[in-house]
Amino acid sequence: MERSLRAARVATYVCFVLCGTLLSTCVVQIPATGERTGISDATLGGLLVVLGLGAFVGMQVAGPLPVPCAPGPDRADRPETAADSH
Predict the structure, then answer these.
(1) How far apart are CA 75 and CA 33, in angstroms?
(2) Cα(43)–Cα(60) distance, integer angstroms
(3) Which spans in the chain are helix H?
């Protein structure tokens, strides 16, 4: 296996493990947070749904935005932006 491919696989694995660990540590705190704040289960569930919907909408909005410093073959196809002229 090529060295850069192996490094990419390890980096992807580490990223998924870290994200999963962080998510699991937050998720187990949800019931305790609801009890501490006095929020009902229905309200807490609604807030979590709104959080997920907000993340989804944010990804849809940010997806088509151009990234001025992104490498790649499509870089030449895009018009020059103010950030490119510096």
Answers:
(1) 46
(2) 26
(3) 3-27, 30-37, 41-62
pTM for this predicted structure? 0.56
Pairwise CA distance, residues 86 & 31, whole Å: 50
Which of 22, 42, 45 is closest to 53 using CA atoms? 45
Dihedral Cα 72, 75, 76, 82, nearest 10 deg:
-150
- Cβ neighbours for 69, distance < 8 A, ≥ 6 positions apart: 83
Distance spanning both ends of the chain, measured CA to CA: 39
pLDDT digits (tens, 9 = 90+) for 2-36: 888 999 999 999 999 999 999 999 999 999 999 99
Which region, left, alpha or beta, applies to residue 21 given φ > 0 means left and ψ of -120 to 50 means alpha?
Answer: alpha
Per residue in 48-76, pLDDT tens? 999 999 999 999 998 887 777 656 555 55
Q: What is the DSSP letter of 79?
A: P
